[in-house]
Write the C-alpha cells for this entry.
Amino acid sequence: MGMHQKGVDPTGQTNESQILTSFGVPLAIAYLPDPDPLNLELRNLFVERAAQGDRYSNPEPRVKRNKTLFESRFNLFEWPEPCVQKLKAFCMEQLFAVIRELNGYGDDMLKDIHYALESWFHITTNTGYFAAHNHPNHAWSGVYCVRHDGDDPDTDSGKLTFINPNLASNMYVDVTTARLRHPYSGAPIMLRLKPGQLVLFPSWLLHEVMPYEGNTERITVAFNARFRYVGNQVL
Ligand SMILES: [Fe+2]
C-alpha cells in the first residue's frame, strides 16, 4: 500500500493543460510472505474436504459454473484449523490497511468498524470456469491464490478477469477511441494470480474466472466483507 496519490484536485483547477483521470476503481494487491508452507496445508485440507462432496459443498450455487469447479460452503473463515485462521488474519489485515489508506482513517475510526464475512474456496480442474458476477450486499471482496499451475502461463487459462465498468464507452468506437491506453480503454483487467497473492476490490465490480486449461489444480480462497460502524463520530 502507500502508492495511492494523495491531494489530487479532481476538478483540475490549475493553469496547466492536463488530462484528468476522472474516476477510478481500486484494485489492491498484496503478497503473503513465504506462502508455500501455508498453501500446502490449505491445499491438503481443501482437497480432503472437497472429497466429502455434499457435506462441504455450497448447497445453493447461484453463479453459473461447471462440474469441474468445486465450491465450498460460505463459512470457511469460521473453520478452526490454524492454516485457515492464519489466512483469514492476513486477508483482514490487508483489507483494513486498504480501508485506512483509501478513506484516510486512523486507529480511532478503525477500532469501531466491525465486520461480517462470507468466505469459501474453489478447487478448479481442467475446463472449470466461473461466470461473471459481483457480490451484492457487501463492500469489499477478495481472492487469494493457493495454487495455480499445470497449465500454459502464456494463455488466459484460469485468469481472474475484472470486467471494465466503463463498458458503455464501447457503444461507439472509431479510430480516435479504438486504441485508448489504460485506464481509458474498455478492456478488462485479466490477472493470472500467483500463489500467495491477494487481490482486494469493491464488491460491486463484475468479475469472472476464465476456463482452467491445466492438468493439476487452480485453488483459490475468496471472501466478501460487510461492515458496521459502532463509533459515534459523524461520518
Ligand atoms: Fe466473486
Q: What stands out?
A: The chain has a mean pLDDT of 94.
